[in-house]
Specification:
4-stranded antiparallel sheet, alpha+beta, single chain, elongated, Nucleotidyltransferase, domain 5, 11 strands, 12 helices
Length: 445
């Protein structure tokens, strides 16, 4: 009975050496040295060759299915889930979802082989380039936070495009705070820093990019040039008041930790928002608050030193006075100021005092209220028509005092005098005489 056997190159080499041993042209020890095997294993191969011929050199499991293979029913179920639900999930993420939601446990390499054999490639086409010189992490939490915003279609086609503003701790890779906004604005970073400062404490440093939110594009005034101070943005003034060091990165690679975070969130958080069917800003922030604890448990790492470096929030500071936008205005002669296209009246002070031509400070807090202060004393507070975090240049007061109505004309008012007739002066009137009298002519003789 002839049996057809396909041998590998290594097995063909063994067949030639064993044939020489059987022919007496080579000893067992020489065969062991040539094949880099022990003499005992060579004798085992010779016994198998004498019993079964060349087929004895092939591995016994060749052509047999693996006892640890994935059952066919499970393979069909996984492929159906990939095609119907998880088509845009990467291999690593999909293994976690299958284990947590469907009770199917398999390795990433097995899932990758199954996926490629069915012609289903990974949604991520190109791997990010490796950064060869990594900066060492800061040892303590709170020493450095990287902050940035990521505009992205987070809600896909279910709602408007949003911007995710987040902060990640450099020591632990923990997302300490995040919030969805309609766009990347200063109010979003105010809300982010307030959430961090009141829950964890005031961080020592912040790492941001060159956005004008962090660095004012205005040219310095003469007073600033003489004092050696650059113009500050609203957020720059806030971090200066809290004694936080603001570091501006010169490239996206410099703050690669938060850039990689957004790459991961744009893959995983989008799916979580899709499963929750979030379609507006409030629903997206609700899903985000439920998503972050599990995300941090999965990706955060312990710091080199467990003692946090956050500074506790001072009890003498009121958050509503710190986390607000500051402006300056000059009171007009009619005791009003102009802000965001609205004319706002300032009530008179004690004894009817007027604040005309005085410089006043305006505090626009994160609830939308606008407070007018003079020498640290509040003069007036204007509530917004739509409460909520303010937008730059957007403020509509809920109500303004109505102007005093003009009294109607009284029936007992005195009649207007009749117009006086137009009087034409006489020809010899002094007004008609020349101002300089003509000199008399001299007689000719």
């Amino acid at each position: 009975m002839n049996i057809e056997v396909t041998l590998t190159i290594k097995e063909q080499k063994r067949l030639k050496v064993l044939t020489d041993v059987e022919a007496g042209r080579m000893t067992g020890q020489e065969a062991a040295d040539g094949l880099d095997l022990s003499l005992r294993h060579v004798r085992r191969l010779i016994a198998s060759f004498r019993l079964r011929g060349a087929a004895g050199l092939a591995h016994g499991n060749r052509g047999r299915p693996s006892p640890r293979r994935i059952p066919q029913a499970t393979r069909h179920k996984i492929l159906a889930l990939i095609e119907q639900v998880y088509r845009d999930y990467n291999d690593h993420h999909l293994t976690e979802v299958l284990a947590e939601d469907h009770g199917i446990t398999l390795s990433r390499s097995s899932l990758r082989s199954l996926r490629r054999s069915a012609g289903l490639g990974t949604p991520r086409k190109h791997r990010p380039p490796k950064h060869r010189s990594r900066r060492p992490r800061f040892p303590q939490p709170g020493m450095l936070l990287q902050i940035d915003g990521s505009p992205h279609p987070w809600l896909e086609d279910r709602g408007p495009d949003l911007c995710l503003i987040a902060a990640i701790d450099d020591a632990t890779s923990q997302v300490v705070a995040a919030i969805f906004r309609e766009q990347e604005d200063a109010a979003g970073y105010f809300l982010l820093l307030r959430q961090i400062s009141l829950s964890l404490g005031i961080p020592l440093s912040l790492y941001a990019d060159q956005h004008t939110i962090f660095q004012s594009p205005k040219r310095p005034t003469l007073a600033q040039e003489l004092a050696g101070e650059p113009p500050r943005s609203q957020f720059g003034r806030l971090v200066d008041g809290l004694h936080i060091r603001l570091i501006r990165a010169l490239s996206p690679q410099a703050k690669g930790r938060i850039e990689r975070l957004f790459g991961t969130l744009q893959d995983r958080l989008v799916k979580a928002l899709r499963q929750a069917r979030a379609s507006n800003l409030d629903q997206a922030n609700l899903v985000l608050r439920r998503f972050l604890p599990a995300f941090n448990r999965r990706f955060a790492r312990p710091p080199a030193k467990p003692d946090p470096a956050y500074m506790p929030w001072p009890s003498s500071l009121l958050p509503q006075d710190v986390f607000c936008f500051h402006y300056q205005r000059t009171v007009a002669n009619d005791n009003t100021i102009s802000f965001a296209g609205h004319t706002l009246p300032i009530p008179p002070g004690p004894y009817g005092r007027s604040y005309a031509r005085k410089r006043v400070q305006l505090h626009h807090d994160l609830e939308g209220r606008l407070t007018v202060r003079y020498q640290d004393q509040p003069l007036a507070t204007f509530n917004p028509l739509l409460p909520g975090p303010p937008r730059v240049g957007k403020f509509t007061p809920a109500h303004l005092p109505s102007p005093k109505p003009t009294p109607p004309p009284s029936s007992r008012a005195k009649p207007l005098p009749a117009p006086r007739p137009h009087n034409i002066p006489a020809p010899d009137h002094p007004w008609r005489r020349p101002l300089i009298a003509a000199k008399p002519k001299k007689p000719p003789w």
